[in-house]
Amino acid sequence: MEDYGLSRRQLFTLTRKTLERRVTHYYKKTNDGNGAIQILVALQVRDELEAADFSMLLKRLVRHIFLQTRSTAAMRRFYSYFAAYFEKKEWRLLTIKLFPAKTYIAEKIHALYTQFIKEPLAGLAGS
Fold first, then answer.
1. I want to staple 34 with a disulfide (CB 3.0 to 4.6 A). Which of 1, 14, 74, 122 is the partner?
2. What region, left, alpha or beta, does residue 5 occupy, with left being phi > 0 and alpha being psi -120 to 50 degrees?
3. Could you give phi then psi for residue 69, rounded to 5 degrees?
4. What's the pTM value of the predicted model, to 2 decimals?
5. Is residue 65 a contact partner of residue 41, using CB atoms and an 8 Å limit?
6. Buried b (16+ CB within 10 A) or exposed e, 111-124
7. What are the structural domain ranges in the chain?
8. Can you state the angle between helices 16-30 and 59-68, rounded to 10 degrees?
9. Residue range 1-36, pLDDT digits in tens
10. Contact 8, 45 (CB under 8 A)
11. What is the CA angle 22-30-7, rounded to 5?
């Protein structure tokens, strides 16, 4: 975590307000979405470990990184940790953005299933 302007100790001891300010400053200074995402994942771990509330930390920044920047391997790796930050429709669009081939294949499999299995079997059941 030293590379991101925060040591491991700072990450788990600073207050929410200070962390929000530092992560926002880091992102504005470097424009490094991958680093910001990794810091936010670590802060989600901190939220689970202690009583202080670190949930939904920097919601606007997370939404900006995921929705308005180019998709990266880090975004694909950690996107599931940020499901609560998005509405259902936005989450679907984000999944399509991050995994275009996977989404395409799933849609084709569903179409083939409907065309060759579901409809013919429904016709047999009706006769």
1. 74
2. left
3. -115, 170
4. 0.74
5. no
6. eeeeeeeeeeeeee
7. 1-85, 87-127
8. 30
9. 556 888 889 999 999 999 999 999 999 999 999 999
10. no
11. 45
